Amino acid sequence: MPTALITGITGQDGGYLAERLLDEDWHVHGLVHASDGHVDELRRRTSSVELHEGDLADAAAMSELVNEVAPDEIYNLGGISSVAFSWEYPLLTAEVSGLGAGAVLEAAWQLKQRGGREVRVLQASSAEMFGLPAQSPQSEDTPISPVSPYGAAKAFAHHFVAVYRARGLHAVSCILYNHESPRRPPQFVTRKITRAAALIASGRQDSLELGSLDVRRDWGWAPDYVEAMVRAIRYPHPHDFIIATGESHSVADFVEVAFSHAGLRPWRNYVSLDDRLIRPVDAAELVGDSRKARTMLGWRPVVNFDDMVRRMVDSDLRAASS
User: Fold this and answer.
1) Is 177 known to be catalytic?
2) Total Cβ atoms within 10 A of residue 115
């Protein structure tokens, strides 16, 4: 039975990926932090996953875990997942999301050296690495120029992938653009919007406060992006792949679809702006060119923007009613 190790397994992508691999009869291991409050939720969905408590930034512990599990595939999805959080804790972000990725790659390379067999690693990179991009849409060749601690840490990890690939490790980087689902935590603006729509529609909340409505992102459906990751790590040769829809939408667009689906029209009657919620520096627009992934991996997004938002609102409406 093939074996996979997933860091960040209790996150949105980690859960979908674990379910995807279990459906293929893989033996799935996951790294969880001692303070992680989402373990029980993961257990309810995937009780057969074998969990290991540890810290992504502890290089020695990561080496021991990788040596013990001896995985065929390692998916490094762990790290700080919020750009806003990274501004509050920049050094922690650098340690966990940057150096932590280096620890995973080194552990995989050491396992390959000891065992003499291929170990494949996938790094979940981010479009935030591009910062204020020199071109739009961005491709795998777009210069990396981060403008946030989150983006800088992801850029470090992304470059480390190239270093270990040159050493002979099958190291893959998926440059993921924003992707959402009902499993996205409420502190993220997308889930904050859909949850507010459900609570306002059910009479349990009066309004929604946001920062900028003009920020534009390339938003996709999380399970589609998990499918891309699996295809990328199993491609015969390691590459970097942009995973994106190629369509750009503003925060205002997201609010309009969500509130309209919840029966809240006009949506501007329920939304107010608070300058304190605006990040110190933020890219105005990020949109990806995923032609390489579509051509080489045969991948393409299945769920479009409107359907993604509606699915999230429907989930939050069910939660609000219960």
Assistant:
1) no
2) 11
